[in-house]
Amino acid sequence: MSIKHLFIPILLFVALGARAQRPTPGSDTVLKGSTIEVIQAYTPKVKQSPKPEWIPQLPPVDTNRPAISFEVPQQTLYFPYNSLPLNPLELGRAPFVLPFPNYIKAGGGNMSTIFVDAGIGGIYGKNYESAIHLHHLSQKGNIVNQQSSLSGLEADGMLHKAKTDWHGALIAQRNQYKYYGYDHQLHNYNEDTVNQVYTTIRGIIDLKNRTDSNGSRFTYHPSVNGSYYGAKLNTSEVSFGFDAPFNYMVDSSLDLQIAVRGAYSNFNNDTQAISNSVTGAWPGLSLHGEHMAGHALVGLVLGMDGSGYILPDIAGEYKAGGNKFFISAGWQASLRRNTYEELTTENPYMRNIYTVLQTRRDEVYGQFRARGGDHFTYSGRISWWSFADLATFLNNNGDQKEFDVLYQDVKAISFKAAARYTVADRWSVGGSADFYSYYNISTRFAGPSQYVWHEPAMRIKADFTITPVKKLTCNAYLSILGGIQARDVPGNVVDLPTIFDAGVSAEYQLIPRLSVFAQINNLFNNKYQRWYGYDVYGLNIYGGLRLKF
């Protein structure tokens, strides 16, 4: 039988079957009994643990510059919490309430100390979270016009989209100082004459893609920022900046990178109007291996007045001993713009009239990091430095209450050692020491020099945290700075006494919502100067209450 003769009966059979199954008018449609099997694909999830309830600790106050800290001793916070069990069949979002996400901490003490610290962290939803921090600290010493205050507000928020995370922040601060580092027997200034107020308003917006949402090999994290920085005597600085880093993961061992950055500011006062800018691109790559890793980037940068720079960032690391020992070496170069905000943050007593030059810094280093057991970590680093136009501060020849900015070319060799021992959330002790040896020093417009003015040659800091009982947390810190040179009133070079500052603090929870705290700064009431002529505050004791809600 041919295929044609066989195909015709098949078509007739299908047509008759379809006609037989067609329902007649007015009859009910009845489905034969059957079993419907629904298969749902799911991904096991882990419930998000509530954010840990933590006790914020105020960093030790730098008694020389209590509002802007030059060297803040490291403070370690511990976040004890209990993890939630696995729930592989979780359906929907598991809601939870943060334990007392908001707090207010307030107190006072000697030296007319007024302290307020408040945080609001309970503003959050399914796709966003935010936090607001407010703080104020003011003090007044025994010397005429020796007083300062810092007030600020920081707001931060995160918005989560399907593939990206948006972040924004707003910062507003007011730093008030009085120039008191003059001979009070020769000069009698009123408060308005020596008063200085620095006001900062800054906004930041950034965006980051989430590779876990689509498995992309491409990541990016662009950001933009703008700020206003104002001071006395019609002094202001308006700044704008952007940063756009991009990364492409070729495979598990190779990443290609490029970052495009720019920072621009305009500084103005009654006698100056200065534009200060840096624009550049940093292309490069990074390598990852089982025992070795490294990266190599080269910055192609255009600075002030059309000056061009090549800024390498090259580093390599070797891992040994089952990831317990790391040895690395590298060469890092950077460019600092020396804006008015940067310099007055370091030394709030500088003059508002100064020459603006940019500082190139090169560091060639070798270091190691190691872990001994589960609790002990330690490291060491030796570096060779080259500073071109390093901004330093020298007290002027007038009444000595203000500092001029000098630019010095400096070479240096430094050594740094650090160690820490931690036992879970029970206690931790650690410290670090930096030592610098400066040479080949020369000052722009003045020639060779023997001193890097007001730059410490030794920095040592240590901290200790312990929770002796469940509701009590105690902290201690130590800060030592030495090898600082200045110039006295007759013009002679003097070595400032070594800075030795120590302090302790404690907080005890009375009830779940209420705790009491106390803090002591400059525990031994040492008299020293970070900046020539400016004696530090003496022993400072204050305390108060912290309420959670």
Q: What can be said about this structure in brief?
A:
It contains three helices and 28 strands. It has helices at 3-21, 191-194, 340-346, and strands at 45-46, 86-87, 102-109, 113-120, 128-140, 147-160, 164-178, 195-209, 218-220, 223-231, 235-251, 254-268, 273-288, 292-302, 308-320, 325-336, 359-372, 376-395, 403-423, 427-443, 447-448, 458-469, 472-482, 485-487, 493-495, 499-511, 514-521, 540-548.
Give an overview in words.
- The protein is mainly beta and 549 residues long.
- Helices cover 5% and strands 56% of the residues.
- The strands form 3 sheets. It has a 22-stranded antiparallel beta barrel. A two-stranded antiparallel sheet has the order 1-2. A two-stranded antiparallel ribbon has the order 24-25.
- The N terminus is likely disordered.
- The longest helix has 19 residues.
- The protein has 3 helices and 28 strands.
- A hairpin with a 5-residue loop joins strand 24 and strand 25.
Low-confidence region ranges: 1-31, 36-96
User: Quick one: overall form?
Assistant: globular
Structural class computed from helices and strand pairing: mainly beta
Q: Give the percentage of residues in beta strands.
A: over 45%
Arithmetic mean of pLDDT: 86
How many strand elements?
28
Q: Taking Cα atoms only, what radius of gyration do you get, to the nearest Å? A: 32 Å
- CA-CA gap between termini: 91 Å
Helix content: under 10%
Biggest sheet record: 22 strands, antiparallel, barrel
Please count the helical segments. Answer: 3
